[in-house]
Design brief:
about 325 residues, mainly alpha, 3 domains
Length: about 325
């Protein structure tokens, strides 16, 4: 719990709390002033999202406050749930059950164990190489060749997105940055704040100003106005948080811009998967947001990029 004595960490928590209080107040005011049926539906969804953000923020902060182990366990559980949602919407055959057992109960915990012991060399290649080669082999041994390529690719893609990419978030704790020792939890906080705020502000600007759709057949709610407003807002916040990172202000701004763009790409690609499967959300676990994978789709793309940029330029 040493981070509860870190003044910068506490300032960040205070900022999150004030933002949530402000959002809650705005949501309650809108609920009492909006009269149109369509407007009430939007406000109701907004307030559902805010309530969920209170819960998610509390869980995330408690995990981060414990340091490395709590963060690894939280993201490990998140990966497990996200993989479950992904596999649920991509039907498999009974012959895939043993392969899925390995994916859920061997590869996922082993990946996060590698993160917990800071074994970068194996962490970086375990799922792309060893698990990636094992999945088709195990499928072939089952003897079922129906849609073999598609079934194998679904499991591999699920492991890559839901487990490998997400595990890069707690892996930030293994980076050895000169002058920033034992403070890496604030890098994880920076990543989550910037990427999730980008998502939220894209939603807000899209609802307020959105006119021109980016990819209407993939994600009808994403607009250029929302995209620009959300990315710029997240970049500004990232630059403003430079004091809690090993970055200079201009570096924090560039990195925030980079991971916000990556987060947008993740959300768009995951929307394409949902459209392909004919569903609106990956699940219904989180009120107002859908499933776990709906909430972390941007982190799937942003976390690996943030990790490697930081590792290459700052360690």
């Amino acid at each position: 719990m040493r981070f509860l004595h870190d003044q910068q960490f506490l300032w960040t928590l205070e900022g999150i709390g004030l933002l949530l209080l402000f959002s809650t107040g705005v949501g309650q005011i809108l609920a009492r002033t909006v009269r149109s049926e369509q407007g009430l539906a939007v406000v109701a969804n907004l307030n559902q999202r805010i309530r969920s953000w209170w819960i998610m923020s509390a869980v995330l902060i408690m995990a981060m406050a414990t340091g490395g182990l709590g963060s690894v366990l939280l993201f490990g559980a998140t990966s497990f749930l996200a993989l479950r949602e992904f596999i649920t919407i991509t039907p498999t055959n009974p012959s895939d059950h043993r392969t899925l057992f390995w994916a859920f109960f061997v590869f996922t915990p082993f990946q996060y164990w590698l993160v917990s012991i800071h074994w970068y060399g194996m962490f970086a290649i375990f799922i792309p190489v060893y698990a990636g080669l094992f999945v088709p082999l195990r499928g072939a041994l089952a003897g079922d060749t129906r849609d073999f390529l598609a079934r194998t690719a679904k499991i591999q893609w699920g492991l890559m997105l839901c487990v490998y990419c997400v595990s890069y978030a707690p892996a930030l704790l293994m980076l050895d940055i000169p002058g920033f020792e034992r403070q890496n939890i604030k890098l994880l906080m920076f990543l989550v704040i910037v990427v999730q705020l980008s998502d939220v502000m894209q939603y807000v600007f899209g609802k307020l100003l959105g006119r021109h759709k980016i990819a209407p057949l993939v994600s009808p709610s994403k607009t250029w106005e929302g995209f620009v407003g959300g990315i710029l807002a997240a970049t500004a916040v990232g630059a403003g948080l430079w004091w809690s990172t090993p970055f200079k202000p201009w570096q924090a701004a560039l990195i925030a811009l980079l991971i916000s763009l990556a987060g947008f790409a993740g959300g768009l690609c995951m929307s394409a998967i949902k459209r392909d499967r004919g569903i609106k959300d990956f699940g219904a676990m989180i009120e107002g947001h859908g499933g776990v994978l709906d909430r972390i789709d941007s982190i799937c793309f942003a976390a690996p990029l943030f990790f490697h940029v930081t590792r290459y330029f700052f360690t």
